[in-house]
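Hey team,

Sharing the Enoyl-CoA hydratase run so nobody has to redo it. Sequence (251 residues) first:
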Amino acid sequence: MGTHIDRRPHGVVVLTVDHPPVNALPVRGWHELAEALNVTGAEPQTRAVVLQAAGRGFNAGVDIKELAADPGHTKLVEVNRGCYEAFKAVYECPVPVISAVHGFCLGGGIGLVGNSDIILASEDATFGLPEVDRGALGAATHLSRLVPQHTMRAMFYTGRSVTAQQLLHFGSVWQVVPRAELADAAVALAEEIAAKDPLVVRRAKESLNGIDPVDVNRSYRFEQGFTFELNLTGVSDRARAEFVHNGPEEA
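Structure output:
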């Protein structure tokens, strides 16, 4: 359980997140993922990173049960910091990060893929932000990188998800493949990038981040402030308690 690092030939690194049953990450899980990205990205031999997950889905967001079990706000502060660090590590990784998404990609998963350079998805992949239903806000910054503005707002207010095919239509998903072919397709794309001059690719990543119209780190941190505000009102505690009581499998 955790984030597993697999250093492949030709400078490709595959990071696999594995937190059963649904990859809803606790505080420790977000920090482990951030550290894995920071460590492997800093290695001079790394030329491309594939981010994938084991199990039923790519990511189900934060571990709501961990938050609900905390009578104060310590875990909330810690998990918000963990998400911030993980999303930032994806975005600021010196080499391209390719997210290979299968099953559900919810909440914090949107933060990861939205900050990735390239997204591949299996045919069963879905993407959504159920934050409003959880009494929280955040990752609209990253959803805005996946869908047009008004689609993002409709998804955010309703909590509805979209399919990989819809994101392929919007151009934010590079390729949709059968689930059994996803891992190989992501590595093949990573190897194609890794075959380029590594210095050129690293400078390309830096330059593309430099021309982004939105500072994703600052924008997401702004969103998190409203999550803290909602928690102070008590509405978030009620939403989390209802979530835990109903016993859904996905966060």
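The chain has eleven helices and nine strands.

Ping me if you want the raw files.
A.
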